[in-house]
Design the sequence.
């Protein structure tokens, strides 16, 4: 292989009309950045004049060169530029000059198509657009233009939905219509299906009308948190779907009630304030998981104790806290063992001495009781979508926020592999 071919192969130019002379490579500092410069020439006989369309003949004359500094991908850790001298021709038929073109760049552009492709691949990673722009020697606006040109837009009309869906929401961008955006994913694979700008009921009903009735009828189970509009949405749009309340949100509901009760008691009890504040985790812990055999010295206590002893002491400091703790443990046991009969009995016969926080939670559980039964009878959960929401938050945090929801959604879909690079690109 000749040196010419080695250079073209190393730089991935893939244009046989580019050639290099001696001393084609040198380093140059531009605005404080050291670049590797590869100086080449583009020359060939054009087929016709782009102005008048006349086929190449003896009335075409060479008309010097025009210099283009083309940004190409980094070489050995250095920023790189292809300093390309493009041949110009003068057509004496129309008396107009024109410059030869190459597949290295698009007409009038000084960023190589290879660099644009690298930017498109970088967009699939959890990185900010500013960092991608700096690494590739371009502006953030260029990164956005590459995103728009390399990736297909999302199609609204769809004809398929999986049998198990998960619904949740996350905090949207400031420019979005609603404060929270709607997120839908496959309940079995965890793959994000789509993201809707506004989670409000009217907007979601309008959105799901884009799916045909057959696709919506195919859905058998939908896991949600305790957001009432989702239940109204499912009943209206998914005729065959059973509603499943995510077990994590059920546990979170009662644990928050107990914790609020503890805080209120703690703020009133100066004697046991430090103890109630320090050992809050033990109070929220499942009683079956507390250690009752290992004796040790606990801070704030004078004698050797077990975890069970610590919890017993704390809950006995206040009757309301004690009764709230006991019903919390009973509900927790029902969740753990999927004992719907016991849960129903516990909620119906709740002690009147429990805190108002827990009373409110019990009222909520009674309201969602038919859907909690579906939770106990099936293994589906919202774990996948919670992980996806965390992924979205990471993208948003790394980018220091997004102005446009459209851009935010596109970046999420690209990173999740839901928007593919186009087969033909006009970047």
Sequence:
């Amino acid at each position: 292989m000749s040196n010419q071919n080695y250079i073209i192969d190393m730089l991935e130019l893939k244009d046989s009309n580019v050639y290099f002379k001696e001393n084609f490579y040198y380093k140059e500092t531009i605005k404080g950045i050291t670049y590797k410069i590869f100086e080449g020439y583009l020359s060939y006989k054009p087929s016709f004049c782009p102005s008048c369309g006349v086929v190449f003949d003896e009335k075409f004359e060479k008309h010097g060169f025009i210099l283009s500094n083309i940004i190409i991908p980094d070489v050995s850790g250095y920023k790189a530029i292809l300093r390309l001298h493009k041949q110009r021709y003068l057509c004496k038929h129309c008396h107009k000059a024109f410059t030869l073109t190459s597949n290295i760049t698009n007409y009038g552009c000084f960023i190589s198509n290879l660099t644009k492709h690298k930017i498109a691949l970088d967009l699939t990673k959890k990185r900010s657009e500013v960092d991608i722009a700096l690494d590739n020697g371009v502006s953030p606006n260029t990164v956005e233009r590459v995103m728009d040109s390399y990736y297909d837009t999302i199609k609204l009309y769809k004809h398929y939905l999986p049998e198990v869906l998960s619904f949740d929401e996350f905090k949207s961008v400031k420019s979005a219509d609603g404060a929270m955006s709607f997120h839908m994913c496959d309940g079995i694979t965890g793959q994000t299906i789509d993201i809707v700008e506004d989670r409000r009921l009217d907007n979601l009903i309008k959105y799901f009308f884009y799916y045909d009735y057959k696709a919506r009828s195919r859905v058998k189970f939908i896991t949600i948190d305790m957001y009432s509009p989702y239940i109204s949405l499912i009943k209206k749009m998914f005729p065959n779907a059973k509603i499943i309340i995510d077990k994590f949100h059920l546990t979170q509901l009662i644990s928050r009630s107990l914790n609020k009760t503890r805080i209120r008691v703690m703020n009133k009890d100066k004697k046991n304030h430090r103890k109630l504040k320090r050992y809050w985790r033990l109070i929220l812990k499942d009683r079956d998981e507390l250690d009752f055999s290992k004796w040790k010295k606990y801070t704030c206590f004078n004698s050797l104790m077990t975890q069970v002893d610590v919890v017993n002491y704390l809950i006995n400091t206040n009757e309301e806290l004690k009764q709230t703790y006991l019903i919390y443990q009973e509900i927790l046991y029902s969740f753990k063992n999927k004992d719907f009969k016991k849960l129903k009995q516990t909620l119906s016969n709740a002690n009147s001495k429990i805190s108002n926080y827990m009373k409110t939670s019990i009222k909520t559980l009674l309201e969602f009781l038919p859907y909690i039964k579906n939770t106990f009878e099936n293994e589906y959960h919202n774990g996948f979508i919670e992980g996806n929401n965390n992924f979205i938050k990471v993208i948003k945090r790394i980018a220091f926020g997004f102005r446009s929801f459209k851009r935010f959604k596109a970046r999420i879909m690209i990173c999740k592999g839901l928007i593919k690079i186009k087969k033909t690109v006009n970047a």
